[in-house]
Amino acid sequence: MNKIFHFLHDKIITLGGSKLSILSIAVAILILVFSYLLSRYSIKFLKKEYLDKTSISKGTKLIIIRLIKIFILIIGAFVSFQILGINLSSLAIFAGIISLGIGFGIQNILSNFISGIIILFEQPITVGDYVSIGGLDGVVSEIRTRSTTVTTRDNISVIVPNSNFISQEVINWSHEDPKIRIHIPVGIEETASKLDLARDILLQIASEHPKVLKDPKPSVWFETFGNSTFNLTLLIWIESAVLRHYVVSDINFEIAKRYAANDIDIAYPYTNLLFKNDLSINSNNINNISKILDSGDSKNIVHGHGYEYGGNQTDDVGQNANPIIKNKDKDNK
After folding, report:
1. Over the chain, what is the mean pLDDT?
2. How many other C-beta atoms can be found within 10 angstroms of the C-beta atom of residue 230?
3. Is there a contact between 59 and 172 (Cβ–Cβ < 8 Å)?
4. How many whole angstroms separate alpha carbon 42 and alpha carbon 71?
5. Residue 208 pLDDT more than 90?
6. pLDDT per position as a tens digit, 177-205
7. Contact 205, 258 (CB under 8 A)
8. What are the structural domains, with CATH classification, of the chain?
9. What's the sign of the alpha-carbon dihedral 31, 96, 90, 67?
């Protein structure tokens, strides 16, 4: 046993001008492994015996856990370097290590690490928050020192670098007060006599939905007069942004059904086509229509809300889903 010890102690390896024994290298590695295991099991013990029994927030618990883990790992690394004879107190060596790391392209790693520390201390987001960032919607399921995991509504885990939460605009739907107001627009036919009924139906649908809050109460705004519609907006409050897509879908289904039952037409996009020529065209003669379009004889094709480009006439907007084809110049020939 003594021979093995003396062999490990006396066997010298030269690395970069420094002479290290096999024994010192083995001890340094063991200390690193021990510090890693100590950090893991100490965190588990701390969570089970103390943190899980307290009323502090999840974000604060996460900060404590991360700091303890980093502290133990730093101590282990420092002791290992001392055993190997590397003096980290020298600023020149420390600066050299940092500059070497940056030279090998760890700028993003350092940026994400620092951003993670900022997130853990400032807590602009915490575990369980519903956030939107860069077109991504989901619940924050885990915050680490380098990245944050966001779980979408499709149960897809997306790993987002922490620097994105610092440099980009982030919507935290759950920050402080989780309830939100939803705007549901509805365009109805231009019939003033049906406005009150349309409003009452919207309020009734909102009041009957179990996820819509009673306080603040739902309301209906008359937004604008459209080209062929009265534009209304139903405003409702719900307790969490996570539910907003489901609630909007449910309410839209009910609006379509109840408006149909009460003969209230919901406006829809359509296209009117007006042809100025001397031909008799009907909707059954597809070949004639194709010839006119291909030959360039057609003029003033109207799109959208009944406006006639290139002329002064306008066509009244109707509720017919099929294109309207008119022969305006026949009487002028």
Report:
1. 76
2. 20
3. no
4. 12
5. yes
6. 889 999 999 999 888 889 999 999 999 99
7. yes
8. 2-89 (no CATH), 125-172 (2.30.30.60), 180-261 (3.30.70.100), 269-333 (no CATH)
9. negative
